[in-house]
Amino acid sequence: MLKQRPTIWCNFNFDEPARQELLAGIADAAERIAFIRRGEPADGQLSLRDADIAFGQPDVQQLIDSPRVKWLHISTAGYTKYDRKDLRDALAARGAIASNSSNVYADPCAEHMLSFMLAANRQLPQAIGLQRQSKWDFPAVRPRVRLLEGEQVLIVGYGAIGARLAELLEPFRAKVTGLRRKPRGDEGVSVLPMERLDELLPSADHVVNLLPNAKAMERLFNADRFSRMKRGGRFYNVGRGDTVDQPALRQALESGQLASAYLDVTTPEPLPPTDPLWNAPNCWITPHVAGGAQDEQHRLIRHFLANFTRLKNGQPVLNRIF
User: Fold this and answer.
1) Pairing label, strands 7-10, 32-35
2) d(Cα 143, Cα 127) in Å, to the nearest integer?
3) pLDDT score recorded for residue 215
4) Which helix (H) or strand (E) holds 105?
């Protein structure tokens, strides 16, 4: 599919050590690699129309108008803006493929989710709040701490992150069920179609939202679905903010229908200082950092290079999306 020495266009803003790592990994296997700074003029640099490979976050219309591009590799796990019929058709017509970086973010997002769940069960935010008051309140905290063992965890949007979270939960002996649009049957845990969501919400102790933003998913978690959840259940969102009706979530927390919510994503982002969600009871928010890692750029490059090698050897790429 790729020519012997392809030309690579990259608009991810890598730091200089990461650039050098990518250049060294490509070595002489590419004719040229051009780093395009997003938001800066590309005058005198490689045009996307002249590239065989696009790595990063290229403009969709420019991709459609770039007939040489045979491989699009997206630098994020989410790819909603690229999930378009016109782009799919354009790539298919030229025998091109697209992949994302979901493997890169599976570990950090799953670990973030697990930290949320452990914090919830072990009452860490509550204990920290008492510490700030120099208050030793054994009776307020000890009766509320819980084990994950035997608890029902419902992972909504079961992909690479959900699979990794299920692996991390295995030693805790939690009971994991996943939901996805089309279960494959080889996931290793019980994975059911998304249509079973309303049926499964009442028995879940922990509802984990990993859904991408898509028109069909907007405000999927609304007042009705929060009312279906087990009273005292916990809700987590490391997917996308627009999949949640935030006023309905706040009301579910204020009424005690939900024991707590742990959010890494919101709508909008950043969440305005005046948004009432900041002060909702037992709502804990991190600023969209779940995908972060100390070696994030290295992990992105390693993933790209692994796929580059696979393509050159005629093997299927990892995280192919279409």
Assistant:
1) parallel
2) 12
3) 86
4) helix 102-121
Task: Give the pLDDT score at 43.
Answer: 47
Q: Which amino acid is at 140?
A: A
DSSP character at residue 320: B
Residues 6+ apart with CB under 8 A from 35: 10, 11, 14, 19
Task: Say how far apart CA 130 and CA 43 lie, in whole Å.
Answer: 57
| Partners of residue 155 on adjacent β-strands | 178, 208
| Mean pLDDT taken over the chain | 95
How far is residue 184 CA from its own chain's centroid?
A: 20
Q: Are 104 and 303 contacting, i.e. CB atoms less than 8 angstroms apart?
A: yes
Active site residues: 288
**105-285: CATH superfamily:** NAD(P)-binding Rossmann-like Domain (3.40.50.720)
pTM over 0.90: yes
Q: Do domains 7-100+295-312 and 105-285 have the same CATH topology?
A: yes
Domain ranges, ordered by start, for the chain: 7-100+295-312, 105-285
For residue 207, the SS3 value is strand
Cα–Cα nearest to 55, from 94, 92, 14: 14
Q: What is the pLDDT of residues 101-130, one digit of tens each?
A: 999 999 999 999 999 999 999 999 999 999
Task: Please tell me the class of the 7-100+295-312 domain.
Answer: alpha beta
Element (H, E) at 113: helix 102-121
Note the pLDDT tens digit of each residue in 269-305: 999 999 999 999 999 999 999 999 999 999 999 999 9
Query: Which tens digits make up the pLDDT trace of 124-153?
Result: 999 999 999 999 999 999 999 999 999 999
Q: How confident is the model at residue 226, as a pLDDT?
A: 98
